[in-house]
Design a protein that fits this description.
The chain is of the alpha/beta class. Helices cover 40% and strands 18% of the residues. Helix 1 runs parallel beside helix 2, helix 3 runs parallel beside helix 5 and helix 7 crosses helix 11. The chain starts with a strand and ends in a 7-residue tail after the last helix. The model has no long low-confidence stretch (mean pLDDT 96). It binds nicotinamide-adenine-dinucleotide and uridine-diphosphate-N-acetylglucosamine (UD1).
Length: 351
C-alpha cells in the first residue's frame, strides 16, 4: 500500500482529497501548519469511515509544521522510512490563496508558496521521491479572450498569488528538464471548487474572512445579510460574471486519478485543467442555491471588483482523456452539500 504525503491536507481541498485517498486504499501522511485549517477535519474523515464500519485511524499520520522548514520536511521523509512506510508520492496543497491579501503581502506569498515549494521539492529529490501532484490555479491564465481555456493558452497572472503559482509551475518544469531524473509531475489548474462532502461532516472552514463567492453565499443565507454581486454590466446573458464551479469531491477524485496515472508512467510532466467545462453566472449560482435549499440569499448589485475577469471556464478534454476522469456532480449537488455542511456545522470545526 503506497504512502502519500499530503501537504496542506487539513485544508478545504486537502481534507476532501485525504478522504478520497483513504477510500482508494492509500495510506496518508499529512503535513500542515494549521495556518488556515483545523486538525479536526482529519478527525471527521476518520468519523465518516467509522460510520461505514471502517477503521482507517492507523492509515493516517499527522505532522504539524511548516513547509518553509526544510529540516521538518526531511524528518517526515526519514521517519516514514524508519517505519518502513516510505513516502511514495506527494500531493502539494500547502500555501496561501487569498488574492487580495497577496497584493498586500507579496513577500509572504513568495515565502510560503514558492520558497516552501522549493524546500519540499528539494527534500523530495534528497529522499528519492519523484512523484508529485501540484495545486495550481486557473488564475495563472489571467485575463484571456479565449471562451474556453485550454492548457496551452498563454499564461499571464495578474496578481502576486497567481505569479507564485506560475513560479512553482516553472520550477517544476525546470526540475523535469534533468534527463537523469525520472520525475512524474502533474500540475492541476483548478477552476472554482465549491460544495462539501455529502456526509455533512467535511466542508470548507476558512479561518480568515472568505473572499470567494460560495462561502459568502452560505453566510448571506445563514445570517440573512446581503452579499454584494460585483457588477451586472458584464457582456454575459444576465450581466454577471461566469465561472466554472466544480464540486470539491470531483476535484478530490481528479487528484486520485492523476496520482494513479503518474504511478503508471516512467517520466512525465503534465498540465491539466480541472473544471467541469460548464459556465454559470453569479446569479445562476445564487438562484440555484435558493431553489435547491429553499432559502433566500439576499444580495445587492454593486460595482465591478478590481482585477475580476468576465468569464473563466475550462476546456477539460485533456484531463478527461488522459486521466479517464469525469466530473459528475451538478451545481445542484454543490449547493445542497455546501448548505448541509453549514447547517450541520454552523461554527465550522469549532466544537
Ligand atoms: P486552504 O487554505 O483550506 O488549504 C491550504 C492549507 O495549507 C491549509 O490547511 C493551511 O493551514 C496550509 N498551509 C498554508 N501555508 C502553509 C505552510 N507554509 N506550511 C504548511 N502548511 C501550510 O486552501 P484550499 O482551498 O484547500 O487550497 C489548497 C490549494 O489549492 C492551495 O495551494 C490553493 O492555492 C490551491 N487552489 C485553491 C483554489 C480554491 O478556490 N480553493 C483554487 C485554485 C487553487
Ligand atoms: C478568485 C481569484 C482566483 C482564485 C479563485 C479561487 C480574483 C481576481 N481571483 O477567482 O485567483 O484562483 O478565486 O480561489 O480574486 N463575486 C461576487 N461577490 C462576492 C465575491 C465574488 O459577486 O462577494 C463574484 C466575482 O465577481 C466572480 C465570482 O463571484 O465573478 C467568483 O468569485 P470568486 O469566488 O472570488 O472566484 P474567482 O473570481 O474565479
Amino acid at each position: 500500500m503506497k504512502n502519500i504525503l499530503v501537504t496542506g491536507g487539513s485544508g478545504f481541498i486537502g481534507s476532501h482529497t485525504c478522504y478520497a485517498l483513504l477510500a482508494e486504499g492509500y495510506e496518508i501522511t499529512v503535513l500542515d501548519s494549521l495556518a488556515n485549517s483545523s486538525k479536526r477535519s482529519l478527525d471527521q474523515i476518520i468519523k465518516i469511515f467509522k460510520s461505514q464500519d471502517l477503521d482507517f485511524s492507523n492509515k493516517l499520520r499527522f505532522f504539524e509544521g511548516d513547509i518553509r522548514n526544510k529540516d521538518f520536511i526531511n524528518s517526515i521523509f526519514k521517519k516514514a522510512v524508519e517505519e518502513k512506510k516510505p513516502i511514495d508520492g506527494v500531493i502539494h496543497f500547502a500555501g496561501l490563496k487569498a488574492v487580495a491579501e497577496s497584493v498586500l503581502k507579496p513577500l509572504s506569498y513568495w515565502d510560503n508558496n514558492v520558497f516552501g515549494s522549493y524546500n519540499l521539492i528539494s527534500c523530495m529529490k534528497e529522499n528519492n521521491c519523484k512523484t508529485i501532484v501540484f495545486s495550481s490555479s486557473a488564475t495563472v491564465y489571467g485575463i484571456s479572450s479565449e471562451s474556453l481555456l485550454i492548457e496551452n493558452t498563454p499564461l499571464n497572472p495578474i496578481n502576486p498569488y497567481g505569479s507564485t503559482k506560475l513560479a512553482v509551475e516553472n520550477l517544476l518544469n525546470d526540475v523535469n528538464q534533468d534527463v537523469n531524473e525520472n520525475w512524474k509531475i502533474a500540475i492541476l489548474r483548478y477552476f472554482n471548487p465549491i460544495g462539501a462532502h455529502n456526509s455533512g461532516l467535511l466542508g470548507e472552514n476558512p479561518l480568515q474572512k472568505p473572499n470567494n463567492i460560495f462561502p459568502i453565499i452560505i453566510n448571506a443565507a445563514y445570517k440573512k445579510e446581503k452579499l454584494k454581486v460585483f457588477g451586472n454590466d458584464w457582456p454575459t446573458n444576465d450581466g454577471t460574471c461566469i465561472r466554472d464551479y466544480i464540486h470539491v469531491m470531483d476535484l478530490a477524485e481528479g487528484h486520485i486519478k492523476a496520482l494513479n496515472h503518474l504511478f503508471t508512467q516512467k517520466k512525465q510532466l503534465i498540465h491539466l485543467n480541472i473544471g467541469t467545462g460548464l459556465g454559470h453566472s453569479v446569479l445562476d449560482l445564487i438562484k440555484t442555491f435558493e431553489t435547491v435549499n429553499e432559502v433566500k440569499v439576499p444580495f445587492q448589485i454593486c460595482s465591478r471588483r478590481d482585477g475580476d475577469v468576465c468569464k473563466l471556464v475550462a476546456n477539460n478534454s485533456k484531463a478527461k482523456e488522459i486521466l479517464n476522469w469525469n466530473p459528475i456532480r451538478s451545481l445542484h449537488e454543490m449547493c445542497k452539500d455546501g448548505w448541509q455542511w453549514k447547517l450541520m456545522n454552523p461554527k465550522g470545526y469549532i466544537l
